[in-house]
Amino acid sequence: MKILFASDIHGCLPAAERIWAVADAVQPDAIVVLGDALYHGPRNPLPEGYDPKQVAALLNCRKNRIIAVRGNCDSEVDQMLIEYPMMGDFAWVLVDGKRLFLTHGHKSSPASLPPLADGDVFVYGHTHIPKAEKKVHADSGGLVHIWNPGSCSLPKDGYQASYGLLADGIFCVCAMDGTVLLEDALW
After folding, report:
1. CA 151 to chain centre
2. Which of 33, 159, 170, 182 suits a disulfide with 132, CB 3.0-4.6 Å?
3. How many percent of the chain have pLDDT more than 90?
């Protein structure tokens, strides 16, 4: 199974268009949107090409392949434009026998992980900083994967705009030109 991960679009139409160009090129089985799809939020600058209505229209074109969670900048009014469920704080996805816990990252985070078993994957956005690593879970003692695709619109800490791709058991954080920035293997 191939999954494309996008986070923190923040209403940026050029970023959404770049993500869909990637989706067209890699043909994922599913697209995971990790929150903050439409609104830029009060702490972020107004993104280049800010156009939440057009971003919603682009997202809706692929609504049958999207799995989404709510970000801290998402609200009920966004759900009025978005034609797929996006107000859940988390979702579980099973991929090749591995459990992926999807969330935005403002409620659960690598510092405050939900209950996870050995080998589970914690996938989040929110920080706009990519991550692909393993960590010992403080409660279970199991080794868990920690993944963040970064932000496709407003990257932070000097990182490039990025997305995540899971294919053949390897999670890669990629710059928008496809350059692999980070990776972590499930096996």
Report:
1. 8
2. 182
3. 91
Please report the pLDDT score of residue 148 as a whole number.
98
Q: Which domains does the chain have, with CATH numbers?
A: 3-185 (3.60.21.10)
Give the Cα separation of 63 and 75 in Å (integer): 18
**What share of residues in the chain are helix, strand, coil (percent, to 5)?**
15, 30, 50
DSSP per-residue codes, 85-150: ----SEEEEEETTEEEEEE-SSSSBTTBPPS--TT-EEE--SSS--EEEEEE-TTT--EEEEEE--
C-alpha to C-alpha distance for 14 and 50, rounded to whole angstroms: 8
- 3-class DSSP state of 3: strand
